[in-house]
Each structure stands twice: as C-alpha cells, then as structure tokens.
Automatic annotation (TrEMBL):
The keyword Iron applies. The keyword Glycoprotein does not apply. GO terms for molecular function: iron-sulfur cluster binding; metal ion binding. InterPro entries: 4Fe4S_Fe-S-bd, 4Fe4S_Fe_S_CS, CobQ/CobB/MinD/ParA_Nub-bd_dom, P-loop_NTPase. Keywords: Iron, Iron-sulfur, Metal-binding. PANTHER family: 4FE-4S CLUSTER CONTAINING PARA FAMILY ATPASE PROTEIN (PTHR43534:SF1), MIND SUPERFAMILY P-LOOP ATPASE CONTAINING AN INSERTED FERREDOXIN DOMAIN (PTHR43534). This is AAA family ATPase. Residues 59-88, 89-118 form the 4Fe-4S ferredoxin-type domain. Coiled coil: none annotated.
Amino acid sequence: MKEITVLSGKGGAGKTSITAALASLAQNAVFCDNDVDASDLHLILKPEIKETHQFDSGSLAFINQETCTKCRTCQDVCRFEAIFTNNDGSPEVNPLQCEGCRLCERLCPADAIQTHQNLNNNWYVSYTRFGAMVHAKMGVGEENSGKLVTRIREKAREIALENKADFVLNDGPPGIGCTAISSITGTNAVLLVIEPTVSGLHDAKRLVELVNSFQVPICAIINKYDINTEFTATVESYLKENKIVLVGKIPFSKMFVESILVEKSLIEFAPNHPISLNLKSIWKMIRQLLISKTCFQ
C-alpha cells in the first residue's frame, strides 16, 4: 500500500480538482481530506457518512457569573489576553484566544472558573462512489488541526490495510502550516500542484523546502500552464534544477468549474476530453513512480 499526498503552496492552484480527478482513476484506493480547516473534497465525492467521531481540540475556560466576585485576578494573570471585561464589569472569556492552560481556573479565589474539553469538531468515515473516504470538520477558530489530520490519516491507512487497498490518496491543505506538516509526515510521496505565477512559484518553493526536510519524494503538476507560458518555463527550470519529476502540465479550462457544479470529477464529466486523457497519463506515471523500486529517484 502506497500513500500519496497532493499539496500546493497556495490556495486556488487547483489541488482539490486534480485530487478528485485522480480519485476517479485510482482503483482500490482510500481517500482522505487533510484540509480539515476548509475541506471541500466532499463537494465532488459526495460521501455517505457511516461513522461520526468527536475530536477533542483542547480546553476552554468558562466563568460562572453567579459565583464570580469580579476581582479580575483571572484577567490579570491570563498571558493570552483571552479574558476581558464586558459592559456590566464582569470578566468574560474570548473563546478564540483562550488556550485552555487552566491558570485562571487554578488561581481564581472564588472557584468561579471551570475548564471544559472542546468537542466542537468531528471526523467521519464515509463511502463514496470511488471507495472509502475519511474526512473531518473543525469549528471556526478551533485548535490542534494538525493533530486531527494525523488522526484521520491513521484511520485511512487502517481502512486501506483492512481492505488491502493499493493506495491512500490524501487531499492536503495549502501552505506550510501545521496541517501541511501533518500531511507530509510518513507519506510515501508528495504530488505538488503549481500554478505558473510569481506567488505560485514562491509558495511552492517554501513547500518544497518543507517536504525536503522530511526527505519525502516529490513530483509535480503545473496546472493552468497556458495562462503564462513564459513563466511556466521558469517553473520547469526550477523543477529540473531541484530534481523534481514533472509528471504533467494541464491547461486552463472552465470545464473544471463546470464539472464541480454538477458534483463530478472532470474524468466523469468529460472522460474523452484531452485534459481527461492527460490526467489519465499523469496518474499512470504516478503509479509507475510509486511502485517502482527506485521510486522518484
């Protein structure tokens, strides 16, 4: 079983559309949406949820206003400035700033503060028309998204082993944050989706540096390559200089949007379109790289 994670240095590069297309080509695979903060692979794969699990993203302090003496000790000791005074002079916790350290709870002379586990997050085991899928939904401003990515990837691999699947295909998050780090750790390879723009290449370089630090092999797709063919050549030069295998180039096409509007991958929407045929060749090349003894070397 091989695991491949699709990543991009920035949002809008087309990562999820390409992942969905590959999902429709990958036979005997398990899919995992690692972009837990803003997941959208489900919009195309339309998963049918079979299991729902809560995820503890940390702790959050609550102040009992009936017990509180308004001494403001909690406000004075909070290092995160998460406690403020409301209009009636009572201290109140800003849930977006509270780190759940429990210092205020321990020092409150009136025992008016309690810390509760924050369970405003869920992860799911689902089934799609292409196979099993693990995905999640986090509340706005919730913490420990990297930990959640690790949990759903573990479950995806567990299902893959049980079903003797050939691949786990992860739709990773954009950028180089905690969720990206959790998506890279332990994967067999990264498929980097780059758009030929200055910002696209700049952010891709940062991501390549991160992936290299984990010594994970990388291959790349240049998406929307024809919007700037001159800069596409610059991207190709960068990939060649850094010994990153370019598995394909995909032109800009409104058909990606049209397929998403009807909740289909491009492969399903237009199976004989030149871009679909190109994607089929790309997936074939990725498979060969993954199963070869030399991998991406």
